[in-house]
Amino acid sequence: MSHVLAAVAWPYANGPRHIGHVSGFGVPSDVFSRYMRMAGHDVLMVSGTDEHGTPIQVQADAEGVTARELADRYNRVIVEDLHGLGLSYDLFTRTTTRNHYAVVQELFTALERNGYIVKRTTLGARSPSTGRTLPDRYIEGTCPICGYDSARGDQCDNCGNQLDPEQLINPRSKINGETPEFVETEHFFLDLPAFAEAIGNWLDQRENWRPNVLKFSRNLLDDLQPRAITRDLEWGVPIPLDGWRDRNDKRIYVWFDAVIGYLSASIEWARRSGDPEAWRQWWSADAQGKDALGYYFMGKDNIVFHSVIWPALLLGYSGEGDKGGEPGELGRLNLPTEVVSSEFLTMEGKKFSSSRRVVIYVRDFLERYDADALRYFIAVAGPESNDTDFTWAEFVRRNNDELVAGWGNLVNRSISMAAKNFGAIPEAVDLTPEDEALLAVAKAGFATVGELIGKHRQKAAIGEAMKVVAEANKYLSEQAPWKLKSEEEKPRQGTVLAVALQVVSDANTLLTPFLPHSAQKVFELLGGEGVHAPMPRIEEVDDLDGGPGYPVLTGDYTVGARWESVPLVTGTPLAAPKPVFRKLEPSVIEEELARLAG
Ligand SMILES: [Zn+2]
């Protein structure tokens, strides 16, 4: 048994999330966490909404609300959506808590003390008419690299290159169109080159990473530059240094504060659990947590933050970069065990885009379809190791042909036949080699499926679980228990159904990490009582340090099924089942495509 940290990428709170967002890391991290808990590990799954930075400030200004009001709105929307998907966070919080501010400032302070944060003079933009600082994203101009005429001061959306505002050709303010003036301004930079060697050594020891992630990360080390960690902006975590902490125009850069969220959320979880030091079991590189495992789940566009920048912060905080130093007051901290990145999901052949309406939001999806139907699609056809296209035709086909006609049909016909003929789980007597073979296939699934989930090969894992389902359907067709009607055939009919039901129960356990909502229902149809697949709940909490309250996702996941075959008890009463999955009409495809076309 190990302590396992599941650190899930933080959704940005500037709008509702679409299914592309949850396909890459939201659902896969939940599948992994549920399996690891069932296998007996002590899992801590944390994340939250990422709420600072210019995009939220810009959007809030456009809507005439404060950045905090905008973040409050979308924090709640996102919490509700993730709850609807059944994602079993131990804590899903946000970056605007006072706890998070304190942890971010503690890391900043220790990194500065250890010499890894350096001050530099750069050029910053200012509005000539108001004298106010213009944040990077408020400046627009022509990209010096590709010539795109609406590049932003921090990035060109056309060629994807990161920019500084003074590089833009014909820069203009997005607020009033005037030409900004550039003046010297001071900012803090993280001395990334001081970590190149330590990160290189650490990457050399990584095993089991997806090869493309490891290669990409190693290549980044060849050209590490100091990276700005403060910005001209009012919305964010204040800089915790004398002469800076009271300034209203300088804040810690959003990426620096967001990656620290994994740690601050773990600390918040521990403080709420009644044992404020409990987080150390997953984080402390000294005795308490030194054997803990940490898995980070994200889209491929975020690899750099998790395989280079976050390790650099952790190394610098622990005093383990080129410049040495002393660990901060939290002690030496664990680096990630594995960075699990997913590829991208597209929709009907196009990139998801809210502005171009190539989108389906999680909320709208869950209003029309079941959470497990989406979870199934993501597991079998998600962007695990290739960019993948979501099409409505494929969604309907997978739902109807595989989930309903394969798994749902097996559950439905085996339970209804047993309920009708026996009213209970029948007795299995005189097992034939065919009976034994099927039971063995199901039992063997625990090792196969579990190992694949542990290696982040969820597509192969659910494929193996569905093979058990297919074998059981084949067995039922061959044994044809509906033909065994005479009095002397009755014991054989009971045996076939008992074997089928045992395999339904085992397959249901194998599918539980993927399909927790329906797994609970199937468990109950088989006469089970209590919690089989624990679910998260939304809790309204007070900020622990006097800030405004907010909703979190949390839950008790110590209950529920274990990763093992549990023998069904002969004589347990069974009732005729209601279908667990819904068949979708083919007309759904046209309706959804019409919605997309607007
Ligand atoms: Zn460009």
Structure description:
With 598 residues, the chain is α/β, with parallel strands linked by helices. It has helices at 19-38, 54-63, 67-84, 98-113, 196-204, 211-221, 254-259, 261-273, 280-283, 303-317, 362-368, 371-381, 392-421, 433-454, 458-479, 490-511, 516-525, 587-597, and strands at 3-8, 42-49, 91-94, 117-126, 133-134, 139-142, 151-152, 169-173, 181-190, 227-228, 230-232, 250-252, 293-299, 338-342, 345-347, 350-351, 388-390, 537-541, 550-554. It has a five-stranded parallel sheet, sandwiched between helices. The protein has a four-stranded antiparallel sheet with strand order 5-4-9-10. Strands 7-6-8 form a three-stranded antiparallel sheet, with no helix packed on it. Strand 18 (537-541) and strand 19 (550-554) form a beta hairpin. Helix 5 (196-204) crosses helix 10, helix 13 packs across helix 15 and helix 15 runs antiparallel to helix 16. The chain is elongated, with a radius of gyration of 27 Å. The protein starts with a strand and ends with a helix. Zinc ion is lined by residues 143, 145-146, 148, 151, 156, 158-159, 161. Zinc ion binds next to loops. Its main location: cytoplasm. InterPro entries: Anticodon_Met (IPR041872), Met-tRNA_ligase_1 (IPR023458), Met-tRNA_synth (IPR014758), Methionyl/Leucyl_tRNA_Synth (IPR015413), MetRS_core (IPR033911), MetRS_Zn (IPR029038), Rossmann-like_a/b/a_fold (IPR014729), tRNAsynth_Ia_anticodon-bd (IPR009080). ATP binds at residue 354.
